[in-house]
């Protein structure tokens, strides 16, 4: 088992599949390097152009939550360590799947399933516990040969309150096997005729500048997001946006419909193909259902992301419409 120190921003442990199997059930707990803070929130909201007043207006957010809150899409952001500090390298990689010894040193995130239980308020100190749930046998995909690693993390604040849980699937593969990706099979989209409401389309040009802002706003300096040559070695057309961008982007679209008094309770996201510099991102969003009998009332939205090259990501969002965490009842 070896650690790749060639690039301080690529913390990847290599080893055999047998060594990786021994990591199933392994868990680490880390503290976020900084408190939830207004500056990082502003950078992230600027990245995805999220105007939700709960992230900008201290008075409005204070009435609902007692303070400005972090966008839900920043959950993984707060866990990311600095790439360097005076005391040495971070003890753990930003994502535990990188610590798992496997042959593959190239990686791409595949899917997330996140539940949000309490707000991340400005000033909160967050702690993350992450556990390796499974490591697949060797798989042959359009990208190459590698292994899928599933991890589950739980985030708690300084009071011990469970803030969120996240199941993450990441694919580790060998760069020498990389080839231009073909589009993955995706679940069939819902028939627009079955939708309760069709959401307005949102378009966003993906520039190199936005990719640079993405790295800064999320502290994610994985080379595929800012190094053109590396991204192309992976089979991507150019540098590409990260998972946290897609989280924030689909959340922004859903929250624009649900309104500031709604609470995002769950988000499932499947990444289909990279969204690269030079692409134009556009959404296809639908309200699938509104359950007025649930307590609290719930709405389920489907938001797909497309580029000129086809489907890039597919997500399902569940909102509580009239009850914020802590059982604060609001009007809608």
From TrEMBL:
Pfam family, one: FAS1_DH_region
Coiled coil: none
Residue span(s) of domain FAS1-like dehydratase: 22-165
Entry-linked SUPFAM superfamilies: Thioesterase/thiol ester dehydrase-isomerase
Protein name: FAS1-like dehydratase domain-containing protein
Organism field: Prauserella muralis
